[in-house]
Structures are given as C-alpha cells and as structure tokens.
Amino acid sequence: MKSFERLLLDNKAWASDKLMQDEKFFENQAHAQKPEFFWIGCSDSRVPANEVTNTESGEIFVHRNVANMVVNTDLNLLSVLQYAVDVLEVKHVIICGHYGCGGVKAALTNGSYGLLNKWLRNIKDVYRFHREEVDIIKDEQLRLNKMIELNVQEQVMNLAKTSIIQKAWHKRKGPQLHGWVYGLNDGILHDIIDLDYTFEVDPIYRFTTNELEA
Ligand code: CO
Fold first, then answer.
1. What distance in angstroms lies between residue 119's CA and the mean position of ligand 1's atoms?
2. Is this model's pTM higher than 0.85 or not?
C-alpha cells in the first residue's frame, strides 16, 4: 500500500468510528459551524490545533502558516481573520507558536531559502526590534526560545493593529487575543500574553472612531 492510500483507508475507519459513537455526528456537523476559537498556528506537522487542545472538529477555526505570522499584506490571513471575527464572531483569537520552530530558527541565520526569504524577513524584523533582549542570552537554545516567545507576542500586537480587531473591540468588546507557545518536548501550551478591548494600542496604529463605526 502506498503511504497516501493509508490516509484514505484510515479516513474510512475514522468516519465509521464517529458514526458508531454518534449516528448523527456528520448530520450535525453538516448544518453549520459556530466555533468559539480562531487559531493562527505554525504549519509544523507536530502542532495540530485540535489534537493538542483535545477539541472536536467544529470547535476551532484554523489558519496556519510558516511561524504563525500576522503580516498586514497577507490577504489570505486577513480574509480568514475577517470571516472569523465578523461572521463567526469568535470569542478568542489564539496565536500559537512552538519551541523549536524551524521558521524562526532559519530567520536568525543568514541562510538563503528562495521565496521563503521574503516571509522570513518579517521574523528578522521581530529580532531587530528586540535585539538587545535576545542577544543578552548566551545559550543558543534559550535564545531561540526567547525569540519564539517574542515572535508570538509581536504577532498578537499585529492583530491589535488591524482594523478588523479594532472595529470588533469597538462594537462588541471582543474577541480576546492570546499568545501561546507549544512545547514539542512536553506537549504543554505556555500562555505568553493575553489582550482584550481595554488594551491601549500604540496611538500611531489607532483608527479613528469614524473609521471604526463605518
Ligand atoms: Co514552526
């Protein structure tokens, strides 16, 4: 059997398992989704949103990219964010990074990775903002860990800079924003930062009330 055929076979087993547990499972799933959480995670295969949070399908709306970035010219991320916040009205947006992230690690080198260089440059900017705080750490592993935490923190800040989040905070005092880092070694999610509508966004990134009510 080819490796991809195993996926199709296991899918059939999974679907019949679900029906054994609840004969209406797919009937209920097919109606609509009303997830409470929007997850922005790294594409890394070891950090699947539902699995590490022990949640069911239908509970988490998910977007993943290299190193869980919120880039303000990324139409893909912004479209998913807008849908999650405006239409699904999620209560929580979670940026989830992970220790040992290859994307952050690559960004801290001078290696060249083709098109990926353009993406990694956003992570190099995070390093440039926090260079002193990062460089003071002598141990290479701990320095990478710190950068991964700072990157998550910066991406939460990037969310707060968007008109999508500022409008939602103005209109419904939600969603709450969270920054987590997942440990590949222990399977634990570490809470790095939490922000809600009371957070004072740096004035240069604030939209006017007129804009927020439009
Ligand atoms: Co990663």
1. 13
2. yes
